[in-house]
Amino acid sequence: MGTSGSATNLMTTDANGRWMFTTPRHITVGKGQAEDVIYVSDYSTNNITKMSLKGEVLDTYTHTIWSGIAGVSCVGDGQVLVCNGIRNTVDVVGNDGEDIVTLLNSTHGIDQPRSICYSPSQANTIRQQYYSRKANIGV
Question: What is the pLDDT of residues 34-50, one digit of tens each?
Fold first, then answer.
């Protein structure tokens, strides 16, 4: 979006004319190898789509353990935090999209996470959960 409020790029279909998203939930921007990249989570397909700022699809991440993914946040070094809502976890995805590690789960009080941010200066996450009136701050 430009400073006037108008869209500069509209990302709806891929190069083959197929819809890029079914139920997009959250979006974040992070540093790529050559330029900034966009990550979009899709709740219905349990995919994260990695795109250039021009809308070119660079990669799609999918994992069998994801169910109802929502919030995404870049944390640096190409890593992305993912709210795995139905499975009650916050996962870390490596820059290759293959390495996935559960960072937080129900033993950390995670219950249907929906949104997450990362504070590099504090090395903390800030997350919001489904039907919750509070934001949780912690590792």
Answer: 889 999 999 999 999 99
Q: Which residues constitute the domain of residue 126?
A: 24-138
pLDDT given at position 69: 92
Tokens 């489904």 found at: 130
Cα four-point dihedral sign 33, 31, 129, 131: negative
- How far is it, in rounded angstroms, from Cα 10 to Cα 88? 32
Number of domains in the chain: 1
- In this structure, what CATH number is given to the domain that contains residue 96? 2.120.10.30
* Cβ atoms of residues 84 and 51 within 8 Å: no
pLDDT in tens, 70-114: 999 998 888 899 999 899 999 999 888 877 899 889 898 888 888
First to last CA, the chain: 32
